[in-house]
Amino acid sequence: MNKKGFIFDLDGVIVDTAKYHFLAWKKLANSIGVDFTETQNEQLKGVSRVKSLEKILAWGNKTVSEAEFKELMDSKNTDYLNYIEQMNASEILPDVPKVLNYLIENKQGVALGSASKNATVILEKVDLLSKFDQIVDGNHVVKGKPNPEVFLKGAEALGIEPKHCIVFEDASAGIEAAKAAQMIAIGIGDKTVLGDADYVFNDFTEISTDFIKELINK
Ligand code: BG6
Ligand code: MG
Predict the structure, then answer these.
(1) Omega of the bond prior to 146 within 30 degrees of 0, cis?
(2) Closest by CA position to 188, among listed 12, 54, 68, 22
(3) pLDDT, tens digit, for every residue of 41-71?
(4) Residues 127, 166: Cα–Cα separation, whole Å
(5) Residue 1's pLDDT is what?
(6) 2, 28, 69, 175: most buried, per Cβ within 10 A?
(7) Which atom in ligand 1 lies closest to the alpha carbon of residue 119?
C-alpha cells in the first residue's frame, strides 16, 4: 500500500473545544465591557489566540496596552484550561478513533496540525496522543492559518511530500491553508462554510474506511 500523510486539525475535528473557547472568550470580553456572540466565536475557528483577542478588541472598539493584552490572553487561557482539565475520552468526536486506527493499521503517516498551543495537553486528556506520529501546533509555527506553514511542517515532520498529504479541517482558514500547501483538503462540518475543500463531510461517521483506502491509493 502507498504511504500518505494524514494531518488532522484538533479543535472541531477531533474534539469540540469551540464551546470551551466560547465560554472563556465570552467571560473575558464581557469583563472589559465587550459583547461576544456565538456568531463571532465562529469567526475565531482556526484563528490563533493572539489574533482572536485582536479581533475581539476590534469588534468592541477597545485598545489596551501591551501589558494588558498579555494579561487578557493569560486570563482567557487559564479559564480555558480549567475546562480542558475536565475533559476525557468521552469528548472525542464520533468515529475519529475508527479512522485513526485504520490509518495506523495500514501504516500511514499521522500528524496533528493545529493552531492551538494547548494541543498536547488536550490529546493527553482524551488519551489520543499516542496515535500521532508527529505533533505540529501553535508552539511550532510563526504564521497562522490560512498560511500553510502548520501543514507544511507536518508533512516535513512525517517525511512525506505535501502533495501526498491529506488534511482534515473544520475551519475555512484551515481549508485555505491546506489548499495553499497543495494538499487534499477534507472539510468536516458545514458545506456552505467549507465549500473550497475537495470533499466535505458532516463528521467522521460519514467517512468510510473504503474512502480512506481510495485516498491512500490515489
Ligand atoms: C484553534 C481554535 O484550533 O486554536 C481557535 O480553532 C483557537 O479557536 C486556536 O483560538 C488557538 O488555541 P489556544 O489553545 O492556543 O488558545
Ligand atoms: Mg479547528
Answers:
(1) yes
(2) 12
(3) 989 999 999 999 999 999 999 999 999 999 9
(4) 23
(5) 74
(6) 175
(7) 14
DSSP states of 141-181 as a string?
Answer: -SS-TTSTHHHHHHHHHHT--GGGEEEEESSHHHHHHHHHT
Ligand nearest to the CA of 44: 1
The residues lining ligand 1, judged by C-beta closer than 6 Å to any ligand atom, are: 10-11, 21, 44-49, 52, 77, 114-118, 138
Query: Average pLDDT, stretch 118-147?
Result: 97
Q: DSSP code of 16?
A: -
Would you call 11 a catalytic residue per the annotation? Answer: yes
Query: Which of 13, 14, 43, 48 to mutate to test ligand 1, by most ligand atoms within 8 A of the CB atom?
Result: 48
Positive or negative torsion for Cα 179, 138, 48, 30: positive
Any idea which ligand is nearest the CA of 168? Answer: 2
Q: HSE on the CB side for 169, CA within 13 Å? A: 35
Residue pLDDT, tens place only, 4-39? 999 999 999 999 999 999 999 999 999 999 999 999
**Max intra-chain CA distance, the chain:** 57
- Is 0.90 surpassed by the pTM of this model? yes
Distance from the Cα of residue 50 to its chain's centroid: 15
214: left (phi > 0), else alpha (psi -120 to 50), else beta?
alpha
Could you tell me which of 132, 134, 124, 137 has the C-alpha nearest to residue 100? 132
